[in-house]
Give the backbone structure.
Amino acid sequence: MHAGDLFQSGSFAKIQAQPDWLNTQPHKHEVIIAGNHHLLLNPLFVNRFPERILERPGSSCSDLQ
């Protein structure tokens, strides 16, 4: 389980790197609670400040694996 910030800035690539890494681990379950730096995961923030989210086709919250 990880609760809080996994990194300083919440770009798509940095957010996607975490589940990519976790998927290589032998644990049956992983739980991640987003922190205040994971702005891409906060739809209220994305809607209010779209200029601060550098989303491109293929790099939105719904594209995370």
About this structure: DSSP finds two helices and two strands in the chain. The radius of gyration is 12 Å. The first helix runs from residue 12 to 22. The mean pLDDT is 75.
